[in-house]
């Protein structure tokens, strides 16, 4: 899978991946994290315009995953309870990651892609999203506490610092 910046002409395929992911989450004990039509087409268009939306493309050109990756302060992470961040250095945040289920280990590939850009990464997920929690921990993130998203609901917050290799 090759990861590249999303383009506006990817929008229909991106929305199909999100529709699949919403259905998958509902079937697997997480019906409320992405209720209704989250993320909205308007939000994805904004991510694309800001060059913060990325897609994973299969060898046949099909879009298999999508995520937002934002480097810099995320106001959602300004307040954390029952814990603390590993540091306060500049970080990147992975948001809205979704897959169509065709390619395995997509999350690890996305994390590697993000780590090529910055060593300090944060992510959060819903308490009911056990599959994502497993993937996050499997990829070396540490549980740092609880944050609250825009609608006031809580999310488990994670942080990973990829140390640079010394040769």
What does this protein look like?
The protein starts with a strand and ends in a 6-residue tail after the last strand. It has helices spanning 11-27, 41-49, 106-115, 130-138, and strands at residues 2-5, 53-57, 63-71, 92-99, 120-125, 142-148, 154-161. The longest helix is centred in the N-terminal third of the chain and has 17 residues, at 11-27. The chain has one domain: Aminopeptidase. A seven-stranded mixed β-sheet has the order 1-2-3-4-5-7-6, with helices on both faces. The model has no long low-confidence stretch (mean pLDDT 94). It is an alpha+beta fold and 167 residues long.
List keywords for this structure.
167 residues, alpha+beta, Aminopeptidase, seven-stranded mixed β-sheet, 7 strands, 27% helix, globular
């Amino acid at each position: 899978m090759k990861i590249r910046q999303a383009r506006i002409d990817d929008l229909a395929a991106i929305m199909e991946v999100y529709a699949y992911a919403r259905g998958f989450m509902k079937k697997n004990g997480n019906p409320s994290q992405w209720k209704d039509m989250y993320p909205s087409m308007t939000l994805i268009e904004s991510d694309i315009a800001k060059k913060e939306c990325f897609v994973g493309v299969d060898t046949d050109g099909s879009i298999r995953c999508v995520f937002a990756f934002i480097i810099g302060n995320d106001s959602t992470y300004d307040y954390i309870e029952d814990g603390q961040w590993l540091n306060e250095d500049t970080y990147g945040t992975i948001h809205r990651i979704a897959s169509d289920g065709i390619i395995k280990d997509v999350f690890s590939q996305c994390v590697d892609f993000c780590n090529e850009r910055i060593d300090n990464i944060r992510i959060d997920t819903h308490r009911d999203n056990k599959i994502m929690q497993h993937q996050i921990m499997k990829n070396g993130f540490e549980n740092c506490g609880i944050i609250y998203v825009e609608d006031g609901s809580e999310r488990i917050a994670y942080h990973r610092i990829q140390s640079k290799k010394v040769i």
